[in-house]
Hints:
Strands 1-2-4-5-6-3-9-12-11-10-8-7 form a 12-stranded antiparallel sheet. A hairpin with a 4-residue loop joins strand 10 (219-225) and strand 11 (230-237). The chain has 254 residues and is of the alpha+beta class. The chain has helices spanning 4-7, 48-67, 153-157, 184-199, and strands at 18-24, 27-33, 72-81, 89-99, 104-111, 118-128, 160-163, 166-169, 203-210, 219-225, 230-237, 243-252. The protein is globular and about 45 Å long.
Amino acid sequence: MSDPATSGRSSTFIGDLSFSHRFEGDRASGWAEFTDELRVPATGQARISVLATLGDIFTGTLAAHVTAPKVALTIDLSLRIVGDVSADRLDATSAILRTGRTITLAGTDFTDPAGGAVVAVCTATFMPSPRPQDVIDAVKGFTPSRRRMGGPFPEEMGARVLAPGHVEMARQPYVQQPTGVIQGGALALLAEVAGETLLDAPVAEMELRYLRGLRVGPARTRTERLGDDTARIEVIDTGDDDRLTTVIFARSRR
């Protein structure tokens, strides 16, 4: 993993992704660019964890308008690749699907700008943070950024494969949210690498349920194969008595 002091990396990995997102009334639209560093090697497929990260950001900014001034916490998120995600750029449209007193559901469709076909779909559920200190200012869109990840996404994130299905990641500033927990997209990357090393194929579907923030670390996966193409992955906080923080179901594309 490169040294952020000398590599020109952003303070967090979100800053090293190339994307834009702007509000259009109660909806939002944007785009994201994908370089080789953000793809599964030898496949051309955009990493599902990168799509999940962007989906979380895009849906989360909309949800934050509902929960403000409280931070919108992601409860669960699903991402399905339904088409060809090998294009250098994907467009994105986001909308609030449903909102209530405590729960907000939002979705993002990723489309190939060449033909307009939907190639990946994200849905996520949010709630306002119960912690009084988790407050935010007015939520704005993301101005266009064309940064580039300095190396392969798992390497830059510090994901370390211990054995097939077992992957570890330190809780370092580069992968943290402002509240100090590991960002949900970083946990998605941890689960993706765990799934692909156990299933020996790229992950094309992912369902994540966030149970609690991972505040100590390192994060580590426990993975169980549930058939030829499906795995159940648990992420534990090894520095906090191995407490379970996230449960993920991952399905491969062969």
